[in-house]
């Protein structure tokens, strides 16, 4: 039987350096193979199925090489989430959701992202568990997930190049709500309908931060969810 890493083992190892040089084309291709192999294993068996040795074999890299890229499976799964969000962001740019307001568009975008994760629940559960287990050593990978989510939201708002502090604050609250909604749905504590209501509600914060609103309360009524 393959040994399952304990939470303590999953976050062990040296923290990645924040000033690492850019990857070469060959290194980037190797990293992408690793992330794809991780996603395949997680899709089949969830968090427990992602074992470092099996990832190395599936991606055709040496185990030592894998550990140089990702010190633990938590690092690996959080990086996989960033990669999945990056792919989703590309799809959203090609086919942006409709919506009369920024709040509408952000809500539709996040529900589309939620739908993509919903189609692969074992992968979604594995990535969410990794985020829960992540300690300070995983901060660079967690920051990348946050930056990617922020970029998705800002694009849906209209591609703001210089968001105000108030707008960035609203984005952070929306991001936290989206991640929390994902975890509560995965644990069976929220339905898709409840998730939708929470996302649509928190997205109304965007209206409070629009220039010229003067802190005006958001309009009542549900957002168009499409």
UniProtKB/TrEMBL annotation:
Amino acid composition bias (Polar residues), ranges on this chain: 8-22
Pfam families: TetR_C_20 (PF17925), TetR_N (PF00440)
Portion annotated as DNA-binding: 51-70
Keywords: DNA-binding
Occurrences of domain HTH tetR-type (ranges): 28-88
Stretches the record annotates as Disordered: 1-27
PANTHER family associated with the record: HTH-TYPE TRANSCRIPTIONAL REGULATOR RUTR, HTH-TYPE TRANSCRIPTIONAL REPRESSOR KSTR
Protein's name in the database: TetR family transcriptional regulator
Organism: Streptomyces lancefieldiae
């Amino acid at each position: 039987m393959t040994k399952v890493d304990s939470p303590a083992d999953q976050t062990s190892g040296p923290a990645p350096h924040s000033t690492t040089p850019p990857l070469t084309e060959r290194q980037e291709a190797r990293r992408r193979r690793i992330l794809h192999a991780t996603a395949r294993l997680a899709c089949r068996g969830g968090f427990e199925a992602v074992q470092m040795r099996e990832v190395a074999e599936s991606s055709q890299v040496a185990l030592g090489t894998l550990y140089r890229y990702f010190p633990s499976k938590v690092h690996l799964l959080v990086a996989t989430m960033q990669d999945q969000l990056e792919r989703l962001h590309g799809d959203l740019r090609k086919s942006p959701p409709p919506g009369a307001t920024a709040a509408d568009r952000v809500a539709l975008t996040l529900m589309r992202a939620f739908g993509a994760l919903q189609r692969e629940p074992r992968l979604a559960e594995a990535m969410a568990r990794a985020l829960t287990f992540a300690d300070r050593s995983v901060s660079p990978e967690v920051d990348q997930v946050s930056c990617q989510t922020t970029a998705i939201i800002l694009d849906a708002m209209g591609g703001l190049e210089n968001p105000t502090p108030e707008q960035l604050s609203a984005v952070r609250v929306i991001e936290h709500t989206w991640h929390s909604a994902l975890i509560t749905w995965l644990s069976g504590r929220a339905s898709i309908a409840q998730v939708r209501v929470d996302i649509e509600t928190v997205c109304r914060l965007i209206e409070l931060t629009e220039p010229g609103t003067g802190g005006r309360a958001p309009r009542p009524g549900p957002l168009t969810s499409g």
